[in-house]
């Protein structure tokens, strides 16, 4: 088992893993990414996110996609784990823990104050896994999202203010 940083030639593998994650999360139709844009955002001159790939016997079995955020209270960067996925047939073999440990190591090496992610409320196996690793749920926080037309409308109010 190995965990390594993704490289541009991994793009199709990353997309395949993203689609497999969407299937697992019961939203396969939600994957509308453009491969060229994803490549630019991951491997272009100003990458917005990083990907680690877990492999066993040379086959990609999982991935972690993460990026930096910032805590004003800590005055330090943090890492947000956007996605963690291990193919169902490969679960329970240490790949998820290895991916999380690798991202945690980046957080420590980079002087981050915290490492955070969210999990779907119905995903009890993942919740149990994260708690076993010492992760603590932030139940007092609610995530909000603005996207699509609502994002466009909100951005358009900037010109009027």
Note down, in words, how this protein is organized.
The chain is of the alpha+beta class and 161 residues long. It has a single domain (2-160), classed as Aminopeptidase. It has 5 helices and 5 strands; from the N terminus they run βααβββαβαα. A hairpin with a 2-residue loop joins strand 2 and strand 3. The longest helix has 15 residues, at 95-109.
Name some characteristics of this structure:
161 residues, alpha+beta, Aminopeptidase, 5-stranded mixed beta sheet, 5 helices, 5 strands
CATH superfamily: Gcn5-related N-acetyltransferase (GNAT)
**Considering DSSP H and I runs of 4 or more, what fraction of the residues is helical?**
25-40%
**Into how many domains do the coordinates divide?**
1
N-end to C-end Cα span: 54 Å
H/E topology pattern: EHHEEEHEHH
What's the pLDDT, averaged over the residues? 95
Low-confidence stretches: none
The third-level CATH topology is Aminopeptidase
Instruction: Tell me what portion of residues adopts beta-strand conformation.
Output: 15-25%
Main-sheet strand order equals 1-2-3-4-5
């Amino acid at each position: 088992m190995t965990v390594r940083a993704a490289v541009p030639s991994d793009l199709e593998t990353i997309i395949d893993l993203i689609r497999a994650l969407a299937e697992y999360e019961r939203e396969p139709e939600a994957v509308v990414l453009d491969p060229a844009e994803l490549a630019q955002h991951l491997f272009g001159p100003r990458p917005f996110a990083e990907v680690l790939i877990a492999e066993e016997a040379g086959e990609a079995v999982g991935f972690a996609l993460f990026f930096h955020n910032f805590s004003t209270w800590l005055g330090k960067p943090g890492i947000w784990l956007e996605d963690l996925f291990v193919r169902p047939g490969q679960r329970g073999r240490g790949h998820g823990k290895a991916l999380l440990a690798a991202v945690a190591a980046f957080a420590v090496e980079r002087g981050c104050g915290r490492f955070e992610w969210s999990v779907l409320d119905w995903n009890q196996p993942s919740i149990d896994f994260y708690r076993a690793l010492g992760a603590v749920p932030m139940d007092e926080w609610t995530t909000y999202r603005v996207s699509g037309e609502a994002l466009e409308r909100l951005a358009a109010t900037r010109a009027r203010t």
